[in-house]
Amino acid sequence: MADDLWLVVGLGNPGPSYAGNRHNVGFHVVELLAERMGARFKAHKGRADVVEGRLAGQRVVLAKPKCYMNESGGPVASLRDFFKVPVERIVVVHDELDIPFASLRLKRGGGDNGHNGLRSVTKSLGTKDYLRVRFGIGRPPGRQDPADFVLKDFSATERKELGFLVDRAADAVEALVSGSLEVAQNSFHVDPV
Question: Would residue 182 count as lying in a domain?
């Protein structure tokens, strides 16, 4: 078993038409982490693009599944098996409707809150006990359907802050892999003013 290896998966939808969507913020975070490693994503047989390297002194595989969000679990399970990563060292970065925009929450386990990517990952891994970096996108305005909201690009106002927030989420991932969940929660559960 790769006891010292971490698997960090950003959830999103592939292709340029989805790139700026709220649902793709997980991709943005792992792309920034790859930049920090000075590495580029390469295709992997596990239906994902991956980067292998070191982050915060830890051996890490970053991954972006190459399928739609609701099928993300297959590639995650395939990478877990290929790299022999124990579930307690799997981190999934995803958008979260139930957290206000600009807030982060870190946790292990829990439900999927209607998030199809998480539902697929939980089903494919056979457990809910992986780590999550939950990137708050807030609830849709008015009566907008949440399914439409997550597939829309961030607003102009949100985009002004997005770089900072993605950077902060990447810092949270580094804190998780180099320390403990509790320490990372204490640092990152403070909502920006």
Answer: yes
pLDDT tens track for 150-184: 999 999 999 999 999 999 999 999 999 999 999 99
**Would you please indicate which residues are annotated as catalytic (active-site) residues?**
23
Task: With respect to residue 193, please indicate whether it lies within any of the assigned structural domains.
Answer: no
Q: What is the pTM of this model?
A: 0.96
Q: What are the DSSP calls for the chain, one per residue?
A: --TTEEEEEE----SGGGTTBGGGHHHHHHHHHHHHHT---EEETTTEEEEEEEETTEEEEEEEESS-GGGTHHHHHHHHHHHT--GGGEEEEEEETTS-TT-EEEEES---TT-HHHHHHHHHHT-S-SEEEEEE--PPSTT--HHHHHTSBPPHHHHHHHHHHHHHHHHHHHHHHHS-HHHHHHHH-SPP-
Residue 42's domain spans which residues?
Answer: 5-188
pLDDT at 2: 56
Express each pLDDT in 58-72 by its tens digit: 999 999 999 999 999
Count of domains forming the chain: 1
Q: Which CATH number belongs to the domain containing residue 13 in this structure?
A: 3.40.50.1470
